[in-house]
Predict the 3D structure of the following.
Amino acid sequence: MIAFDFGAQGGEDAVIVGIYVISASGGPPRRLTTSPAIDATPTWSRDGRWIYSASNRTGQFQVWKVPSSGEEAGSARQVTRGGGSTAIESTDGKYVYFARRLSGTPDPQNSLWRIPVEGGDEEVVVESFRSTPGSWDLTAEGIYFVDQRPSTSGMQWVVRFLALGQQHATDLARLRHPPYLGGPAVSVSSDGRFLLSTQSQGESDLMLVEAFR
């Protein structure tokens, strides 16, 4: 099954963004969430029973989870309390890692946090990175995230890695082009061998048009 968010037309020209699932082999999609609020950026729990998403049901974006079988009255559960967006459950199913927007910064910055799956205290993991909330991925070994680093030629986009249990991240690769920030900017294969990044390569060409008039 594939989970995705989709904006459907509501009343008075409103767009209702909800979570849907569809079979990986195709077929009709099925809506999971029933709230009129925005539910976006879904991810699966490791056992497949839940789907996490960012939702503004309380007026502020928090991480929520709903049963993958479909939301019913009272079945949605709020995960975070201090704000949160893109969330990924750890491979051992013990923690939920999530992004949180930093306020009072001149440019878009986020931090990464984690909270026990069963609830508890929220703990910061990455204090700050200059990118969008979805520009990171989680494996059994650690966190991969896209960040900006100063260089002699200005700011450069790099992929950084923070091993779980460590405090300092290391630079892995420099992106040749700015990442596409309208969606996930980086994704890592489940075995940790490959990294996929989406980059925006802007370029133009001169064209000669014959018989223009």
